[in-house]
Amino acid sequence: MTHRHPVVPWVEQSTQVRTSTVNLMFSIENKRHFRYAPQKKFAALYRPKENFNHFIHARDYASTPQRFYLTPPQVNSILKANEYSFKVPEFDGKNISSVLGFDSNQLPANAPIEDRRSAATCLQTRGMLLGVFDGHAGCACAQAVSERLFYYIAVSLLPHETLLEIENAVESGRALLPILQWHKHPNDYFSKEASKLYFNSLRTYWQELIDLNSGETTDVKEALINAFKRLDNDISLEAQVGDPNSFLNYLVLRVAFSGATACVAHVDGIDLHIANTGDSRAMLGVQEEDGSWSAVNLSYDHNAQNEHEVERVKMEHPKSEEKSLVKQDRLLGLLMPFRAFGDVKFKWSIELQKRVVESGPDQLNDNEYTKFIPPNYHTPPYLTAEPEVIHHKLRPQDKFLVLATDGLWETMHRQDVARIVGEYLTGVHHQQPIAVGGYKVTLGQMHGLLTERRARISSVFEDQNAATHLIRHAVGNNEFGTVDHERLSKMLSLPEELARMYRDDITIIVVQFNSHVIGACQNEEL
Amino acid sequence: MGTSVAYHLSKMGWKDIVLLEQGRLAAGTTRFCAGIVSTARHASIELKMADYSNKLYQQLEQETGVKTGYMKTGSVSLAQTQDRLISLKRIASSLNVMGIPCEIITPKQVAQLHPLINIHDLVGAMYVPEDALVSSANVSLALATAASRNGVQIHERTSVSHVSVQKGRVTGVETDRGQIQCQYFVNCAGQWAYELGHSGEEPVNIPLHACEHFYLLTHPLKEPLASNLPTIVDPDGRIYIRNWQGGILSGGFEKNPKPLFTEGRNQLEIQNLQEDWDHFEPLLSALLRRMPDLETLQIMQLVNCPESFTPDMRCIMGESPTVRGYFVLAGMNSAGISYGGGAGKYLAEWMVNGYPSENVWPLDLKRFGTLQSSRTFLRHRVMEVMPLMCDLKVPRWDFQTGRQLRTSPLYDRLDAQGARWMEKHGFERVKYFVPPGKDLLDLDQSKTFYKPDWFDIVGSEVKCCKEAVCVIDMSSFTKFEISSTGDQALESLQYLFSNDLDVPVGHVVHTGMLNEKGGYENDCSIARLSKRSFFMISPTDQQVHCWAWLKNRLPDDSNLTMEDVTWKYTALNLIGPRAVDVLSELSYAPITPEHFPSLFCKEMSVGYANGIRVMSITHTGEPGFMLYIPIEYALHVYNEVMNMGQKYGIRNAGYYALRSLRIEKFFAFWGQDLDAFTTPMECGREFQVKLEKGMQFVGQEALLEQKQNGVYKRFTMFILEDHDTDTDLWPWWGEPIFRNGRYVGKTTSSAYSYTLERHVCLGFVQHFDEQTGEELVVTTDFINQGEYEINIAGQRFQAKAKLYPFSSLFAHRRRKDEVELSGYQRE
Fold first, then answer.
1. Complex ipTM above 0.95?
2. pTM of the prediction?
3. Which residue of A has its CA nearest to B250?
4. Nearest CA to B333 among B56, B1, B4, B735?
5. E strands along B5-139, which residues?
6. How far is B276 from chain A (nearest CA, A)?
7. What distance in Å separates the CA atoms of residue B751 and residue B748, rounded to the nearest whole number?
């Protein structure tokens, strides 16, 4: 285990510190933590034993219990390391987009983090794309999907003439029309090495679209489904074909053998489409007339808790497998999400898997995991990347959209998410005001109440980013639903090998809508 | 406010008065007013208004039979810091000389005056035993009752839609219940005054803006508070506390005010005017800190009542500069009840007699122009003003909001050279230049009653003015051009100004623009450009007042034109003995004293630029020139002057240096030393008046009478003797002057003279009869035969009185004949 990606630099500096930190771990008595304890996508396979060695080893040093806390500024610098905000520019003082902007952030638990996020504006069609991707068995697949999926979607949405124009430009070596404008955090990288390969696959896709020219206007829902399926297909094909470059060859295999869920939003005027594959979630924050906040789900989790999903999987396979299909709430007893990109171990035939692994590079052969064939593997594929698409017409009361990986949803209820983000975005002014009314309140009582409220508000103002604010609550919330700094500090000072046992990677995008524009669009449509 | 004006108008004998109220009388802010009558005010005119109000309310119940709830409780203003105590002592010394009882007391004495107060963090307090509490709604009703007995008609539930104007005069009022014809209209619409002013065809700018204001009412204490307990004002805690029906009423001026009605009256905002406890929290904390025992007291209500605030924290009264007969009284900055009586009286006098009985220039509507009526400006400014109500007022503080509105074309150049700025009438002016590498304290720390951190910086600028040459950008001055086809311009100006303007072309004349009583309405310099055209320079804040004054008095003659050219010229003051050398190198025109004597004006070229009006005046008594430069040449001329001036040691200077120079030369300036109640005779400027210029002029009779009978006050210069500049409190203005131990007047301005190495105060000396207090004629002997003391925040310093400036003995002067005998200067 190397420490190339220290989660908490202060903890990594000396054994002394580490010792005390671990010691502190034991002082967290609250059993509640363990409810969220290691929900590994591959619980049985993937628990790294050496982590435990560290853990026990470290415990031996714990002779002098020292209290170790991160100070609030240290906590903030961890929470804010990955935050990103984008505001849609206004034109002539009027914002013509239904999106005001978005805030996004991620907090790693794995090292390196396996979550990815993407956001881009479509330049050749209208609309904005936003997505969160939760990788498992490594981050390769999530990374590839975060780089590639939006291009596939954008191309699927392009009208025939634009596709022709682009193809002609490539053909004659002219400058290509830009398709997407990315809104990226400096830490969100694109792989340089694979760009050529990815581009060729994409080009083949649009060439096919040109040949298929149906002459019909593109339906967003269909485009999303096509793009998801096509990309997954390309990932699979690239791994089967391989690449002469050994680095790339290994890369495409890692992409195919790892997996990723995806939850993508496409916003164009008042049309909001959510395409979801796996167990990340999209949620709409709605402000009721009385000012309170409620949550509307815009995606269904594809996991064992979703009866329809279990039903679907069972329908797709012979009755004889019914018992072995879902075990311990996991697909074939192994995989938590029931839909995902990559994960060819659940898609390819056993023969294909063996052939590719054997002809593959040594690193692949040495990996126990890739060689392992899931039990009861009779009628592949067991897994699909096809998304479920939900279309929603935005209304003025729809104030924001939260896209987040399951790391958030397993710690917080969506109703709380809606309230916390809603109150954050509208600021303190809309905080429920205090009214004395006919009650008997003394000055002292009122003073105590106000001081407490102000303390709460000042913690709100530490965050400039709704996603950061949400993470602060997800990690630091106590029993009363308020952020407990001590708890936050403890959770963030976990050494990286322990962090994963207490929480998952969390990735959040909060999209804020412009109610005025939405109201105006609505009127136009009427 | 309306009832007070109606009451006083009817008392002064006016008939046919109609009072219109859109809702019910005394139902607006008046109803919610905290009802504290407090005379602890900084400005002397405000103090007089409050004092009059107090006396009026005291006898109102007897006069009208309406219960006003008047209760003489006294007030205690607390000081948590030494600086605050100094500030209170300054107020106390002005209250005392006005005959209002007032004393500085110790924290222990505070505890004796009020049982609940926590004194452990106090350094002292000021006790004003005569201050009172009233029910503001009842006072208003009492005034209305008295007014209607005197024949005033009162119409409630009548709202004014607009005021009709014909030929620049009020002719009537349109209401929702019909039309009323009238010659005079008074806008007392409080926070709606701005909107009402703008509703007519001829807009009247009344710069004020409303802010939410909160105060707390509680149930009675277990042992109800006595109704005669003094009101507590804790400015450092930003709160006031008065007894109220056995409990308390407490409000304050928070640091983060909530302005409202920026876009006019708004039903939504009116509905949202609710209790905002989170907003009130800092004030509640301050209250519980001051009176910890109140913890168990039960809350009755948190009242939210909007108050209107003005850009400079002073109320607005007077006649509109554009519409005759349109009067205004509004913008009370939350002191409506304290000022109400006095303000109503002054306005009534103004309407009946044409002028009030006191100098109200600091409150005159005409101190503002259209430039202060942007809603954005007002919104931002009142957000600064409201917290300032409680902030410490130290000498020379500047507003921070609404800045960089009017600037000279050289602004950026000067700023880059370290200029520090202040603002007058929206115009940015340089205070001084911070030399490179030198840091001053930041804004908050630099607030002091003692020696300021810029002392040495200004000292070196003054030295440079005395020994070499300095440039001061003085573009903010108001500049008018008056010309005619025939002799109309000369004839009109000869009538309106006291000095003789029939001088050869190219001469500059210092002259007062006087009122009928001989008082200064304006003090200016007029250059005769040609036989028929004149160039007039007046103080910056005269732009609106002087324009209105002249417009109303110049004959309605199409051959006579007056133009405001303020914006067309950049003015550079080239000051110092080497100014003549710099200018000589830049122009072929001869400017030696033989060709260019003092008080001369010539158009010439400077550098490449032609048509520069050069005048041999500096407004300080030092040698030098004023350059009036068409703005497009400003940068060129400035660059040329600075380049050429290098070998003569030229440098930039600011207004602080200018002030030090003019005060040590005993130059009075309008708005500070001179006002509408000061005549040239009273400030040693008889030579600027030509009583025998062959024709009549405004104020002539009054001056003739003064010449015969003598004057009742005399502008005097005082040199502080036993004052240590480094360790003693600095004088500012408004300090009482004592002659042989008896109060004789107040200072009007002061500065440190780097030449004399002493503080110089300017002020007026009066002569009160020792027995009767009657005002007597002030003679030169009276001034000269006295021992003087100046009271700075309670501490008296010996001072030497002088009626004439120091001669050339002190001032290093190159050209003897160049002395301006007198001049004016503005800050």
1. no
2. 0.69
3. A443
4. B1
5. 18-20, 36-37, 71-72, 75-79, 103-105, 124-128, 132-133
6. 7
7. 11
